[in-house]
Amino acid sequence: MHVMYLHGFRSSPDSKKGRILRQAFSSRLGFSAPDLNVGPQEAQQIMLEAARGIDPNELCLVGSSLGGFYATWLAETLGCRAVLLNPATQHTIPQADYCYLLYLYLINLYTYLYIDIPDLYPAN
User: Fold this and answer.
1) What pTM was estimated for this model as a whole?
2) Residue 8: how many other CB atoms lie within 10 Å
3) Which of 4, 68, 2 shows the shortest CA–CA distance to 34?
4) Sequence-distant (≥ 6) Cβ neighbours of residue 55 within 8 angstroms
5) What is the pLDDT of residues 52-65, one digit of tens each?
6) Which contacts of 42-46 are long-range, i.e. CB under 8 A and separated by 24 or more positions?
7) What is the C-alpha to C-alpha distance for residues 31 and 65, in angstroms, rounded to an integer?
8) Across the strands, what pairs with 91?
């Protein structure tokens, strides 16, 4: 059995959930947690590459938030099992017009920039 953890938006394989899962499973089962802090198309390629060579019958995905959305797609694509933790059910971000993926070339890092405009959404 191989457990693959797919983290959420702006998280990482080394998040608290990632560390707990790695500690629980890595000594007894195969374990991987790819870094998905890239755009959706590149994330798809990373996940497919991470799953390459693993029998779908032996693969169990654990997806959290956006990772749950990705896990749903990957499980349907490969025919493997998936456990979803508070999954994102839509691939869009409510304030997508004000969220940008930035690539910081000099340090080879992707990050997200949020522009917060409080008056954009009036209070109810």
Assistant:
1) 0.73
2) 21
3) 4
4) none
5) 999 999 999 999 99
6) 43/70, 44/70, 44/73
7) 19
8) none
